[in-house]
Structure formats: structure tokens, C-alpha cells
């Protein structure tokens, strides 16, 4: 049971890290697109992208901390 | 229309203005109301999954930890999908210049599509405005359909779900009539549209003995 929990925890952190990585790559791609097309970025979109990266980042950090404490 | 047009002119989409002397006439996105249904659906699915995972966690595992973890995960997934939807909407644009009509469907990191019609190759254009449904009537949101060369095998260009479709269609009709008309425009249009009228009037005059145009 303990091993299963650790496995699920690790899988969970991997999924969160993947979302965070995707968010970072996506934000970069959007910024490139904005530069390429010459459209000024809307502040709402920009804050959404920032939140989209920060949220997984903090979630991963918190999950990792909990995981380390549990271990 | 002037207010809607001015902020776009010469400041935006510079990279898509490729011809010498090309000027931006109109830049439109779909109205934000197109996002309502997907966002509502996403919210419904989000709450559904969060509630189901909470119930499973509480009743089967007797712990809040799994509910919290799955809640964070579903929030992240929902935020990611929402961000993608917003960005895709933001990069779906209809651009009309004095040289071409463009539809840009750009989804960063996933796909890139640009449909364009060169106005120098167009002889005539018909512009229709269409509003379907109660909500769209209420919001004044609809489609502007531009049909190029209707007499030939025609090509249709639809600007979907834009605010004030009637005003935009009238504005475009004015602008495109200046752009698509050939150099000898007056003679071209007079010949094209008056000839059938004259012929009809001759026929009438022959039959009824009436006057001509």
C-alpha cells in the first residue's frame, strides 16, 4: 500500500511538472506568435499565461514539499 | 465604424501587410460570446470531476488528501484548457486590407492557417450580413458573408460571429467597391447592369408601345 501511494505521488508530481513545462513552452510560443504577427499582447491574455505557469509551478512545489515530508 | 477602425490602422498586424502601399481597412475577431458555451461546458466538467473525485476520496479512501490532490490537478487542467481556448480565440482574426482579405487561424505551438483572397483577382464582390438566433439578435452578433465573383464559380469568405455585422457589411461594401472595381469602373458597371434594363425596356416598348429609358 505504501509503495502504491509513493508511486501515485510520483506520477502526480510528474503530471504536474509536465503541465508546468507545457505552460512555459506555450507561453514562449504565444510570445513568439505575438512578435511574429506584430499584435500587441492583451493584458488579460498575458496575466492568464503568467497564471497558467505560476499555478502549476506552485502546485508542483507544494506537492513536492508534501511528498518529501511524507517520505 | 471609424472608432472601431482607428486603433487598428498602421499599428497592428504589420507582418501581414506585405504589398507595397497596402493599408489595413478592418481587423475583427469573433465576438467573446462564442466562448460562453465552451467555458460553461468546461466549468461543468471541472465541477463534475472535482465532486466525483472528492466523493471517491472521502467514501472509499477516507482521506481528504486525494480529494485535494485531484482538485489541484483538475484545476490545472481546466486552467490550461481555458488558456488555450482564449489564446486560440485571440489569434483567430479576420483582416481586410485594400489588397487582400485574410483569415488568420493561428494556434501557437499546434497549428497555423492563413486563408486569403487577393482583391486584384476579384471582379465583383457581394456582401451579405446574417444574424441567426435570439441571443445573437440580442447581442447584435452575426456573420458577414463576402461572395467573390458570384457570376463565375464563386468563392465565399465568411467573417463569423462579429459584433455589428450590418454596419461592418455596409462599411466593407463601401471600401471593397473602391478596391475591387476595375480601372474603367464606370463604363464596366454601366455596361454590366444597364444593358439588361435597356433590353427589357425595348421589349416592353415594342409590345406595349411605351417609352424607353
Task: Using brief descriptors, characterize the structure shown.
heterodimer, A: 71 residues, mainly alpha, 2 helices, 90% helix, elongated, B: 213 residues, alpha+beta, four-stranded antiparallel beta sheet, three-stranded antiparallel beta sheet, 6 helices, 47% helix, 24% strand, disordered N terminus, disordered C terminus
Can you describe this structure in just a few lines?
The complex is a heterodimer of chains A (71) and B (213). Chain A has 71 residues and is an all-alpha fold. Chain A is built from two helices and no strands.
Spell out the blueprint of helices and strands:
The complex is a heterodimer of chains A (71) and B (213).
Chain A: H1 2-37, H2 43-70
Helix pairs in contact in A: 1-2
Chain B: H1 2-5, E1 24-29, H2 36-60, H3 65-90, E2 92-97, E3 100-107, E4 111-118, E5 125-130, H4 134-139, E6 141-148, E7 155-163, H5 165-180, H6 185-208
Antiparallel strand pairs in B: 1-2, 2-3, 3-4, 5-6, 6-7
Helix pairs in contact in B: 2-3
